[in-house]
């Protein structure tokens, strides 16, 4: 099956991308050039093939790649614009012959710093393919374009027909919200580095800061003479939207970031790529902000605003390196001219030209990236690896009867690029069938840049590849021939461009073990040295096998190096995340500890003050009690001294002795009880460690419950009774009652010094001094 028949075959076997190669001119100190462009053969006028000569490594295979066309260093933006057929892509979108248009995709792919952004977005003096394509779109639609200012319902009708549930804005409203006063000083055009960390925005990039309106855009190259056909019976509206894929998530570039309530940082909300109610068979980026542009100038202003929000950073490989895959979408909406039918507006249909500036693959070692930028690079490399696999598969599918499934769901980038390129199951069943999108990929390369990274990109993006194994001199030859000259690599035995070129050994289809597990097979050209004798065939074969193995291993090594880079960056990302989590945990632990200490000290202080107050009450109570005792004793002594006559003397003496005995008895009892209480208090004080004590409330209730359950008087002292520290007044009073001397002494106190004779009992006499020790306790 030749290439033409492959391309015209039904969608299942269609190659999705035309692939062009653009070489970047040398800048600064040029190192050794490893890429050579082959002269076109007689049938072609433009070069299509390049050769990659591994620098300083004669053991590595020489690779030859075929592209739709190769643009050399001197090719201008206009050359690229014309040759890749941007005008025909625009024409497909405009659908000049009626009906729905065809979606078109234009993307750049390459190593970092190889010129992708230059090609797509141009520079301060040169327009890129995006600006040129927009120019052609507006020029071609001409007067058939509808504008919000002249058609007030335009916004509303477009919004109603929009499948992506986007928010439609008129250009004037959007630009007024983004740009400062038109009279404000001018800002140079083209993107500026945005100081963003992760997905948050630093103070310099807050939405409060409005941009300065660019006064003029570059006018070169000029395409004013170029316009393509549009449908004269239709009227058009142009809707522009922009988003980026950063760390595998989609962010709208035209929606301002929102300030987070918790972190106070400005953040964008990631969007979903999904099927909606109005587009069940097609995935769309849902919820995008879209701007209705009535002129080229408005569209360029929107582009400028979106580019300002795109993530870029300076790396060791490129001073303004794109850190995300940027998508710029020009939706051309179209409807039949004329009056409404039955009062209903004619329906809008539409096709989209999507222009993609992919972030470049990079090696951490060369780019000297670290932290967030290194983690970004890991994600970029990973998504580009998946893109490479998809390109490989779709190309293999184009050359086989039984197509392989393109694994485009592995990351957001490939989902966005491929998921709508194939007819969905539902669109097979329904009559409505969209034309498959037309896609052009421009691979950019620096012929003096990073050989390994360039070779890797070319391997999976080229339309075809051939490998020439270098001839390695035999050992005998080396010994017997002196001096030894390094033989030049053999040329391919078949010219590049012949039908088998569509085979690509890298990322072999159906290889479950990964891209590096498949040895070279189909298109390795075995080369034979013309000077070798037939007798050395065995040896030569062995050497060739060894050379093949070396080539395979070096390729495997390249892949592993790349995988290692991305793994390392992922690990570093995880490690930095872990570290920040550990810091957070330490902070939390510290805060909790401080809270605990404060709470503990507060409670301790409360306990101490309660304890001090109780002690004070006890001391006062004891003093009062002994005061009364002494008073009673003094009174009784005075009564004895003032006895009226001798006859009663004996009686009085005996009565006084009895009273004294009773008093001593009471005092002894009271002493006994107070000693017990005192012991209890001492014991309690001894074990009064704040951490071991129950909360006061609990203990208070325990004590009271305990005395109730024993059925006795809660106020009567018992061995083992706990002190009640209940802070409320009634508890305190109860406790004081418990500590009262006795009923007798209470009655003594109540009668204010008049001892009642009824309560006097005769008991064995006890010596006062025998109890003197008891007093020491107070
Ligand atoms: N064809 C060209 N002619 C002149 N200058 C070029 C060309 N291609 C690239 N450059 C210059 O090379 C530098 C790097 O180019 P650019 O930023 O486009 O690289 P990139 O591939 O987009 O890198 P990254 O992936 O890191 O964003 C820029 O200064 C750019 O102006």
From TrEMBL:
Bias (Basic and acidic residues): 730-743
The Kinesin motor domain sits at 16-467
Q: Which PROSITE patterns would you find in this protein's record?
A: KINESIN_MOTOR_1, KINESIN_MOTOR_2
What keyword terms does UniProt attach to this protein? ATP-binding, Coiled coil, Hydrolase, Microtubule, Motor protein, Nucleotide-binding
Q: What GO terms are given for molecular function? A: ATP binding; ATP hydrolysis activity; microtubule binding; microtubule motor activity
Which intervals carry biased composition (Polar residues)? 744-757
Please name the Pfam families in this protein's record.
Answer: Kinesin
ATP-binding found in the keyword field: yes
Which positions are annotated as binding ATP? 110-117
Is this entry keyworded Nucleotide-binding?
yes
Question: What is any one GO biological process for this UniProt entry?
Answer: microtubule-based movement
Source organism, top-level taxon: Eukaryota
Sequence segments annotated as region (Disordered)? 640-670, 687-778
The family database entries (InterPro entries) matched by this protein are listed as: Kinesin-like_fam, Kinesin_motor_CS, Kinesin_motor_dom, Kinesin_motor_dom_sf, P-loop_NTPase
Residue ranges the record marks as coiled coil? 543-591
* Any single GO CC term annotated in Swiss-Prot or TrEMBL for this entry: nucleus
User: What PANTHER family does UniProt report for this protein, alphabetically?
Assistant: KINESIN-LIKE PROTEIN SUBITO, KINESIN-RELATED
Q: Family assignment?
A: Belongs to the TRAFAC class myosin-kinesin ATPase superfamily. Kinesin family.
> Per its record, how is this protein called by name?
Kinesin-like protein
| Native source organism of the sequence | Lasiosphaeria hispida
